[in-house]
Design brief:
- The structure holds 3 protein chains of 3 kinds.
- Chain A is mainly alpha-helical.
- Chain A is built from 14 helices and 2 strands.
- Chain A has a two-stranded antiparallel sheet.
- In chain A, strand 1 and strand 2 form a beta hairpin.
- In chain A, helix 5 runs antiparallel to helix 11 and helix 11 packs antiparallel against helix 13.
- Chain B is globular, with a radius of gyration of 21 Å.
- By secondary structure, chain B is of the alpha/beta class.
- In chain B, strand 11 and strand 12 form a beta hairpin.
- Chain B has an 8-stranded mixed sheet with strand order 6-7-8-3-9-10-12-11, sandwiched between helices. Chain B has a 4-stranded antiparallel sheet with strand order 2-1-4-5, with helices on one face.
- The longest helix of chain B is centred in the middle third of the chain and has 18 residues.
- Chain C is an all-alpha fold.
- In chain C, helix 1 crosses helix 12, helix 10 packs antiparallel against helix 12 and helix 11 runs antiparallel to helix 12.
- In chain C, about 50% of the residues are buried.
- Classes of the chains: A mainly alpha, B alpha/beta, C mainly alpha.
- The interface between A and C is large, with 54 and 48 residues.
């Protein structure tokens, strides 16, 4: 019951947050750039053409009206027109979003799957060689720029060792892609029972996912480690031990459950980081996701494309954070009570 | 009568960076009795209890001694044996700040039932029934509802009752209460102490009360042990010790308790508790003692029997007697 | 513990609080004691030194084109090799250190100034001002940082000044929140009241008396943010939104070097990347060690 109240409250908060996001995006797309009119008409335009384009874009109207038009457009799925792909931005993004989503989700899963056990073992066996290795790995992971580690991995595993496939997309270029259902290559190939496509996609996504995951492992390991270490010294862990509960239960159920709570809140932030990282990773590995679309838009000075990506990613980020908050409220009984 | 718990020559040392802090104990608890262990903060009281249950963490370590409980030396048992047969089962312990001693993400009832299931087996339903039974035993008004509540939803007094239920559910022979009522409201304190007394009468569980509060001991305990700087300086039946303290520290402590009937100020003990890393030679109390002799400065007094259950570690009291 | 001293109306100005110098002493002690933290400190010092002394260390002009020497692998003449225009990679890396140092300091300085001001005012005055300011920072924080940086940089255009504004802008909310929290607890303390009673204006109380005592946790944040600023600047340059060519920047050097990666010319992307990695590693090790000064519970 209280949970429902909490969820409702958070859902209501969603609206002003999203409005704020839209205002910022509007500012970025309309208010800041010098004069996008010239971008469209080119340097040889006549005065009439300039005036017409201005009216077209609505530049002659007051700012708040322009914002409302923008908001209205967005809510109807119109994010502008991308002149470097000759398609509406919204359609481009719809095409490309699933791959980025797939990539960030896989990376997050890998990162959590490696970092949490590492952090837990580190905390439980403080000072051991495993702890030191984990610490070194964590600080290296946090310090390595994402775009560089991707390149290094690509160079080592593709160029030198020839283990990884060439960084050109998600499938072997000779291979027929499976029918597009969700847009996520792994899921689509599974649904179509195309094991060859699945394998190829896995091979192609391995390095990008590892790159992205590696950049996140550091911070998760540290957080898990410090949280676990703190919990292991808490009163209730001492009490549980004093009551003769087996060490295994005390560590891996009581302590871990409590220690993971701060890590859960971190997941939201991590997802944002992963989404941002896709811009860099997709470009390096030639993947046709939202990130490389943003990159292409930047290269071609296509503002609509860039700001469209910003808006979509921000909305996804806000929603993910909301889900994480709700999840946290479910697992920590103290939250919804307050 | 054979003591239930007999601590002989227990030495627990703390290896700090520049010093070693030592705590030495001789202590007995007889079946069914309520014993109070009194001393100021830092006198080493909790260390005693934690040593019994072998909960001392590095940099502390039990160096030597014997802890004989029900015929076995607890210090010689393996960790597994401690967990299975002693902790939570034959000897249980309740702590200060009961709310922080409970797992915040589990319900109170689950935690109580879990202790029972770990040591005595049984199905979840059986454990739940037993937990409810004990919640009733500790006089919690609405056991079913409290069973499903989380620790942050319970008051301090309720949490302590939950802990007591947890401590009793496997019917231990000894319950150690480490500052169990400190931090609770005075009225709640009174309720808890009354409860403990009634439980002793009902179940004959021995109880070791560790506290700094002389009043708690006076109300609840049969016997008292006074600690100073990690050593027991006086022991005996409560009414005897309180009426006729033998050790200067004990009498000073009793004098320092303000009396509402008198008009005078409470008398504090001059000086300070010595730094455990840097104890004075001889008797640790001698710098603050008004009956200090030359021998006190040089030689540490040992605990000697003074008739019946009375013991005292003081050169001056021996000399007075003679 | 020495209590902070409140002084009269702004005439007295800022007094050097004994507690602060003690904390600096302890920080230096921590740095010396732990070899890892010391390593971090050495690396950071090296970075600053290289940045400041760049023209002296790398004599060759980083921008000058020399096609005769194009794409040479590392050798005695060119320690880190040359790029496709014959420019000395070592020299470019050294000069980029200078640029990144400048960007890091100015952007973090900007973020610090704006964020602290916002947080302090919000925390001290509370009420509607607090609510509004916090809403604004929340909105900025609702974006994944790099995405917002990318979007803002795309809107403003490439260039060093713009990167500084962008990176400063996205980091400001962090300081705002931190400072607000500190001020909220500090304003209830007796010394705050004493400062008010001594005749200081509201702003005087906040900036002259309360803020200096809230500094320690901010310093750890600054150490973290410096490395983050470098990372972001490099990332933005990598995607073409940062420093404009031919000015050398580690990130843009890497993106230029990518095209030659497949032909085996590894030095073009490897060395700039190593430079970023080592610098940030140094900052992180240092920040980790310093965190122990202010919050020992989090010790590794």
């Amino acid at each position: 019951m209280r949970l429902l109240v909490y969820v409702t409250k958070r859902l209501l908060l969603l609206v002003p947050t999203l409005l704020g996001v839209s205002i910022v995006c509007f500012t970025l797309i309309r208010v800041l750039p010098g004069n996008p009119v010239y971008m469209i008409v080119g340097p040889y335009a006549t005065l009439e053409e300039i005036a017409r384009v201005k009216a077209d874009l609505g530049f002659d109207k007051p700012i708040y009206q322009q914002y409302l038009i923008y908001l209205n457009d967005v809510l109807h799925g119109d994010l502008g027109y991308s002149w470097h792909t000759s398609q509406p931005v919204a359609r481009d993004l719809l095409q490309r979003f699933p791959l980025s989503f797939e990539l960030s989700t896989i990376s997050l899963v890998i990162a959590l799957g490696v970092a949490i056990p590492l952090g837990v073992v580190s905390a439980v066996h403080r000072g051991s060689w495993l702890d030191h290795i984990a610490r070194v790995l964590a600080v290296i992971g946090v310090s390595m720029p994402l775009f560089w580690s991707g390149l290094v991995l690509s160079y080592v595993f593709f160029f030198r060792l020839h283990w990884a496939p060439p960084p050109l997309g998600t499938l072997d270029p000779m291979m027929q892609p499976p029918p597009r259902l969700t847009g996520m290559i792994l899921i689509d190939s599974l649904i179509a029972r195309r094991w060859d496509a699945f394998q190829s996609a896995l091979a192609h996504l391995a390095l990008p996912a590892v790159t992205l995951a590696f950049s996140m492992i550091g911070s998760v390991t540290r957080m898990t480690r410090s949280s676990m270490a703190e919990v292991l010294h808490s009163d209730f862990v001492r009490t549980a031990t004093a009551f003769g509960l087996p060490r295994r239960t005390v560590i891996y159920r009581d302590a871990l459950q409590n220690a993971l709570l701060p890590v859960v809140t971190m997941v939201g932030m991590l997802y944002g980081f992963a989404l941002g990282g896709t811009v860099l990773v997709e470009m390096i590995f030639g993947l046709a996701g939202m990130g490389s679309y943003a990159f292409g838009s930047i290269m071609n000075m296509d503002y609509a494309g860039v700001e469209g990506v910003v808006l979509v990613v921000a909305v996804v980020f806000v929603v993910v954070n909301l889900l994480v908050d709700i999840l946290y409220a479910i697992i920590d009984p103290r939250i919804s009570y307050r | 009568m054979e003591p239930l718990l007999d601590i002989r020559g227990l030495r627990t040392y703390f290896f700090l960076r520049h010093a070693v802090v030592k705590a030495v104990k001789h202590l007995s608890v007889f079946p069914g009795e309520m014993v109070g262990l009194v001393g100021e903060t830092g006198s080493g009281k909790s260390v005693t209890a934690l040593s019994v249950l072998r909960l001392i963490q590095p940099p502390g370590r039990v160096i030597s001694g014997e802890i004989i409980f029900q015929g076995r030396n607890l210090l010689a048992l393996s960790e597994a044996e401690m967990n299975n047969s002693v902790r939570g089962r034959a000897i249980t312990m309740i702590f200060q700040n009961p709310r922080s001693c409970l797992n915040p993400v589990l319900t109170a009832g689950t935690q109580i039932a879990r202790v029972y299931q770990t040591h005595c087996g049984g199905t979840t339903r059986q454990a739940r029934e037993r937990a409810l039974e004990f919640l009733r035993l500790v006089q919690i008004p609405d056991p079913e509802s409290v069973f499903n509540r989380y620790p942050h939803q319970l008051s301090g007094g309720m949490c302590q009752r939950v802990m007591i239920a947890m401590a009793l559910i496997c019917e231990p022979a000894l319950v150690i209460a480490d500052e169990a009522t400190t931090g609770l409201d005075v009225t709640v304190q009174d309720q808890i102490l009354t409860l403990m007394r009634e439980l002793r009468n009902k179940t004959h569980t021995a109880q070791l009360f560790i506290t700094h509060d002389l009043g708690v001991v006076a109300e609840t305990c049969d016997r008292v042990l006074v600690m100073y700087s990690g050593r027991i300086v006086e022991a005996g039946a409560v009414n005897e010790v309180y009426a006729r303290p033998l050790h200067p520290y004990t009498s000073a402590l009793l004098n320092s308790v303000p009396d509402l009937r008198k008009d005078s100020r409470p008398r504090s003990i001059p000086g300070e508790v010595p730094d455990p890393r840097n104890l004075p030679p001889g008797c640790p109390f001698h710098p603050r003692c008004d009956r200090c002799t030359d021998m006190c400065r040089v030689q540490e007094p040992i605990l000697v029997s003074r008739g019946g259950s009375r013991q005292v570690a003081c050169h001056a009291s021996v000399q007075t007697e003679e | 513990m020495t209590l902070p001293i409140a002084s009269g109306p702004a005439g007295n100005g800022l007094r050097w609080k004994p507690g602060l110098s003690r904390q600096l002493d302890y920080s230096w002690y921590v740095i010396r004691r732990n070899p890892v933290t010391l390593l971090g400190f050495v690396v950071v010092t090296l970075f600053v030194a290289v940045g400041l002394l760049a023209p002296l260390i790398a004599r060759r002009d980083p921008i000058e084109v020399a096609p005769a020497f194009a794409l040479q692998s590392p050798c005695r003449q060119f320690w880190f090799g040359t790029d496709q225009y014959g420019r000395d990679v070592f020299s470019r890396i050294v000069h980029s250190a200078r640029l990144d140092l400048f960007i890091a300091l100015t952007s973090v300085g900007l973020a610090f100034a704006i964020g602290t001001a916002i947080g302090a005012l919000a925390g001290y005055y509370g009420g509607a001002l607090d609510a509004t300011l916090m809403r604004l920072t929340d909105i900025v924080l609702a974006f994944p940082p790099f995405i917002l940086a990318m979007g803002t940089a795309a809107a403003l255009g490439a260039g060093t000044a713009n990167i500084i504004y962008v990176v400063g802008f996205i980091q400001a909310p962090i300081y705002a929140r931190l400072v607000r929290g500190e001020i909220l607890s500090a304003r209830e303390r007796p010394y705050a009241e004493a400062a008010r009673c001594s005749g200081n204006s509201g702003l005087g109380v906040v900036f002259i008396h309360l803020l200096p005592n809230c500094l320690p946790p901010l310093l750890v944040q600054v150490a973290n943010n410096l490395s983050w600023a470098i990372l972001n600047a490099a990332g933005l340059s990598f995607i073409g939104l940062g420093v404009r060519p031919p000015t050398p920047e580690w990130g843009s050097m890497i993106s230029e070097g990518v095209q030659f990666m497949m032909s085996g010319r590894w030095w073009l992307f490897m060395f700039p990347g190593l430079a970023i990695f080592v610098t940030i590693l140094g900052f992180n090790l240092l920040a980790d060690g310093l965190r122990d000064v202010f919050d020992p519970r989090l010790r590794w």
